[in-house]
Amino acid sequence: MTTTTEKVTTQALPKPVQQLGDRIFAGTAKAAGVLILVVLAGVAAFLIVQAMPALLASPADLPGGRSLTAYIGPLVFGTVLAAVIALVLATPLAVAVALFVTHYAPRRLAQGLGYLIDLLAAVPSIVYGLWGVAVLAPATLGVSTWLNTYLGWLPFFAGPVSVTGRTMLVVGVTLAVMILPIITAVAREVFFQTPKLHEEAALALGATRWEMIRMAVLPFGRSGIISGAMLGLGRALGETMAVAIILSASGAVTFNLISSDNPSTIAGNIALQFPDSTGLAVNTLIASGLVLFVITLLVNAVARFIINRRREFSGAN
Amino acid sequence: MKTVRHGARARIAAVGIATSGVLLIAGCGAANESAPSGGAGGSAAPSVSGTIAGAGSSAQQAAQEAWIATFTGQNAAANITYDPSGSGAGRTQFIGGGVAYAGSDAYMTPAELTQAQTRCKSDVVEVPDYVSPIAVIYNVPGVSNLQLAPATIAQIFDRKITKWNDPAIAADNPGATLPDLAITPVNRSDKSGTTQNFADYLKVAAGPAWPYAVSDSWPVQGGEAAQGTSGVVGAVKAGNGSIGYADESQARGLGQAKVKVGSEYVGPTAQAAASVLEASPRVDGQGQYAFAYKLARDTTTSGTYPVVLVSYLLACSKYADAPTADLVKAYLNYVVSADGQSLAASKAGAAPLSDKLRGQITPAINAIAAGS
């Protein structure tokens, strides 16, 4: 409907009058757009140029003395593992919070809650890191021991249980808290845009509120949930300081989430190793950064793809 | 690099102008009062001016900050900066000419020394300035006076000894009640001079019990890893049955193990740490002004604590301009002086250099001069 009207208006107008202000604005906007591309290309070029010596070096000269894949592989594993734990924990919670805010909470409470969640996104990651290591880690000791005792047959809880609690599980939980507001914010916006007619139709057919949500809200909001989750995943993948502070990273490739022996993440490893690295070690770290850059780009591209594919249903237009 | 040097030169110029202004005023004052010129520290040392930059060891950071604050307080016209970018970065910047002096937790390799001599166009001054005991810290309920032999420490950190009531630990602690508790060794997750020195101790003192090469990254997988000294101390505090290593000054309030030296067990005191250097031979072939020590980690001398971090100062013996040479000389002399060392002891928990050692290294610092 709106699109047709717009088309009519643009056709009806003769040539638009171009004033100086218009041209300045158009130029500035275009420059801003180009600038972003230039910055992105610049970062990519920097990463590639700086990573090149590590890519070309003989394996024996690299840190660890084996090969670039052997060095970066465990880091990629750790990065993805931490991010996936965070995503698995945060997504259902975020959807539940968004549903509560949009469909269950009284209006005034919903508004306050929305502000609070946005505030959660404003907390610096280093604060989350300190909280994770000082509060969350010691608090999980009992839980980890319980998991190990009763669910020890699962590879995730094989133990031995870390005595400090600075485990992959705690990192995952901390990251989940960090990405919760991002996913919630996106899901909330999409749920708000569910056509009222759909909801009322469902209710009129005799659906309970939960059935209405399942039939009208969730299918409509699916793309929003997915894209929110992907944005959250992007942040979880790149999180640095919280991981560096909390995780006891000793380089193992394992699914064991509650021991002292954990794979590091790419960003966390760079933060830890960069200060005292020189020469080829720096190039290797930057090469790992390049890998992270590519992974993040892919994740964001997938998110964009999903959003675009389902744009016609999203109500954003 | 170029811009850095350019910036430094611009700053030197600026300070120079400021200095000449000060001198003018001082000159007026002198003329009026017909008194000998000179600032507060004029009687002890000729006042120096200019700007020098240093970089390197982050272990020295706290001490360098204290030294710089006091030194520039006494010499208002002097401006000194220290960038704790890490020992390796410090040596690289020193060799590249980016900084006038550097701090390093390891003495230079022969290759680095040659490069540094090329940069300086002269001999290199390399003197120990910062000795810090590394404490073996532990958190075991009911155990208050832990004693460990080097081989036992090595096997604990190599995860070969996994229980606190292991016979090897019991043999070092006759009469002590040791709990049936798993040992969690805690190491640094970042690169560190502390790790390098601790690993070097294990390598030399424990021999075959420590089969790893010495580097600034921890070689054993699977232990608890934490960021920085504060991270290790925090992990040991939090972890029941954990053991770690950290700068003694940062590890007070925790159990600190005594290590076996000869036939006795010695705790990490400043005095015991400083006496290691006297028991250690000087590394040959480094040049007349390079005082590098092959630390006698396996010493049996009574009252010596061999688990120490020894950090060095690197400087040229010749600088192109006289103000820089004078400033570097004055600053280095202050750092190794009794005043400077006791300041580092109080601010950074370092072990002060002995008078005997100071007597040996002072001529090297005094040899710094202008010229090419």
Question: What can you see in these coordinates?
Answer:
The complex is a heterodimer of chains A (317) and B (372). Chain A is an all-alpha fold. Chain A has a single domain (39-54, 64-309), classed as Orthogonal Bundle (MetI-like fold), CATH 1.10.3720. Helices cover 75% and strands 0% of the residues of chain A. Chain A has 13 helices and no strands. The radius of gyration of chain A is 24 Å and the shape is flat. The model of chain A is unreliable at 1-6 (pLDDT under 50). Chain B has twelve helices and 14 strands. In chain B, strands 1, 2, 3, 4, 6, 7, 8, 9 and 12 form a nine-stranded mixed beta sheet that branches. A three-stranded mixed beta sheet of chain B has the order 5-10-11. In chain B, helix 10 packs antiparallel against helix 12. Chain B is elongated. Mean pLDDT of chain B is 83; it is low at 1-44. Chain A binds chain B through residues 63, 133-134, 137-138, 160, 162-166, 244-245, 247-252, 260-261, 264, 272-273, 275-279, and chain B through 58, 85-89, 92, 182, 184, 186-187, 189-192, 216-218, 221-227, 231, 234-235, 238-242.
Compile the SSE list and pairings.
The complex is a heterodimer of chains A (317) and B (372).
Chain A: H1 2-12, H2 20-56, H3 68-104, H4 107-122, H5 125-139, H6 141-151, H7 168-192, H8 196-204, H9 209-238, H10 241-246, H11 266-273, H12 280-309, H13 311-314
Helix pairs in contact in A: 2-12, 3-4, 3-7, 3-9, 3-12, 4-7, 5-7, 7-9, 8-9, 9-12, 11-12
Chain B: H1 2-33, E1 50-56, H2 61-74, E2 78-83, H3 87-96, E3 101-104, H4 110-120, E4 124-139, E5 147-148, H5 150-157, H6 167-172, E6 184-188, H7 193-206, E7 224-226, H8 228-238, E8 242-247, E9 255-256, E10 258-261, E11 264-266, H9 270-279, E12 308-316, E13 318-319, H10 322-336, H11 338-348, H12 355-366, E14 369-370
Parallel strand pairs in B: 1-2, 1-3, 5-10, 6-7, 6-8, 13-14
Antiparallel strand pairs in B: 3-12, 4-8, 4-9, 4-12, 10-11
